[in-house]
């Protein structure tokens, strides 16, 4: 099935799969919704009320490194294997991820990237997410039956994950392009960060490409011509190494997805992103038009 390796699948494709009872050991649909605490949204409760038929809930905060002081940093391979195995996913399962954000897509690309990072390329994002699924009149349900557990073996590609130390070194050498997917205001330091302990701004050399710019007004991913133009106009050369950052490693994955759709897989993610950078960097490594970090 060629559709199994497409990074994006349409609502029609998923609706057909649901109607034909294809959801099972070979096809799993995951609601991967995650929201910042300030939004006061409870994605697990929303899932219980309505979701795409046959889907399960993937909790980004649950499937993470609980020992980290930072939010939802990547889990170990064994933790990921256990977690997705419990969702009825094996190494031969095509996984489709979506979220319920008003943007069309917010956290789903993070989980798409996590599967790929842990060696599973049979993963797709539902283009336009729940927003378009509802707009197009496809069915939802509150019914849920827990899938039967399957064995999943993860093999993590550590080279796709970048650390604070690597980013710090890169601000000196400028060897690698780094795109920051936060909003222009947060990047420049003129809009507040959603986390109270963090001020906005960016690190030296970062290029701002807000994650929302990769989608059209309806919340669907832009076509390849428009995506190419976006990178070109931002001054990003996709033939050269590229790393992505954001607030806490979630929306950075929109950069990875867009580059992947243009035939450039393997964009790396700074998992700690701005949350970690602001905590650890000295004030002279923080560029902002707003309030300065106190020493």
Structure description:
With 295 residues, the chain is α/β, with parallel strands linked by helices. It is built from ten helices and ten strands. Helix 4 links the parallel strand 4 and strand 5. The longest helix has 11 residues. The chain is globular and about 55 Å long. The model has no long low-confidence stretch (mean pLDDT 95).
Helices and strands in order, then pairings?
Blueprint: E1 8-9, H1 11-19, E2 27-31, H2 43-49, E3 56-57, H3 77-85, E4 94-98, H4 108-117, E5 123-126, H5 129-135, E6 161-162, H6 164-173, E7 177-180, H7 184-188, E8 206-208, H8 224-234, E9 242-245, H9 252-261, E10 268-270, H10 273-280
DSSP E strands, number: 10
Gross geometry: globular
Unreliable spans are: none
**Classification by helices and strands:** alpha/beta
Radius of gyration: 19 Å
Name the beta content range: 5-15%
Rounded mean pLDDT score: 95
Tell me the quaternary state.
single chain
- How do the helices and strands follow one another from N- to C-terminus? EHEHEHEHEHEHEHEHEHEH
Features:
5-stranded parallel sheet; 295 residues; alpha/beta; 29% helix; single chain
In short:
The chain has 295 residues and is of the alpha/beta class. It has helices spanning 11-19, 43-49, 77-85, 108-117, 129-135, 164-173, 184-188, 224-234, 252-261, 273-280; strands at 8-9, 27-31, 56-57, 94-98, 123-126, 161-162, 177-180, 206-208, 242-245, 268-270.
């Amino acid at each position: 099935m060629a559709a199994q390796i497409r990074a994006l699948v349409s609502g029609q494709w998923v609706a057909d799969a649901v109607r034909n009872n294809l959801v099972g050991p070979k096809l799993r649909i995951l609601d991967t919704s995650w929201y910042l605490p300030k939004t006061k949204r409870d994605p697990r409760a929303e899932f219980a009320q309505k979701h795409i038929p046959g889907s399960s809930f993937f909790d980004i905060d649950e499937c993470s490194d609980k020992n980290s002081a930072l939010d939802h940093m990547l889990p170990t391979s064994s933790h990921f294997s256990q977690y997705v195995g419990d969702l009825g996913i094996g190494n031969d399962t095509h996984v489709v991820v979506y979220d319920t954000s008003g943007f069309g897509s917010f956290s789903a690309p993070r989980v798409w990237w996590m599967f790929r990072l842990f060696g599973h390329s049979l993963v797709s994002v539902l283009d336009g997410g729940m927003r378009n699924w509802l707009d197009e009149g496809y069915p939802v349900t509150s019914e849920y039956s827990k899938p039967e557990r399957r064995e999943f073996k993860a093999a993590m590609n550590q080279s796709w994950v970048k650390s604070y130390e690597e980013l710090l070194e890169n601000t000196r050498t400028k060897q690698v392009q780094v795109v920051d997917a936060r909003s222009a205001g947060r990047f420049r330091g003129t809009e507040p960060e959603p986390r109270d302990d963090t001020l906005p701004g960016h690190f030296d050399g970062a290029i701002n490409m807000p994650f929302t710019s990769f989608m059209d007004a309806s919340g669907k991913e832009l076509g390849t011509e428009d995506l190419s133009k976006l990178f070109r106009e931002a001054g990003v050369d996709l033939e050269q190494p590229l790393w992505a950052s954001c607030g806490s490693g979630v929306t950075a994955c929109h950069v990875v997805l867009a580059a992947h759709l243009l035939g450039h897989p393997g964009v790396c993610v700074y998992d700690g992103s701005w949350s970690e950078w602001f905590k650890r960097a000295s004030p002279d490594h923080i560029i902002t038009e707003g309030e300065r970090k106190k020493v």
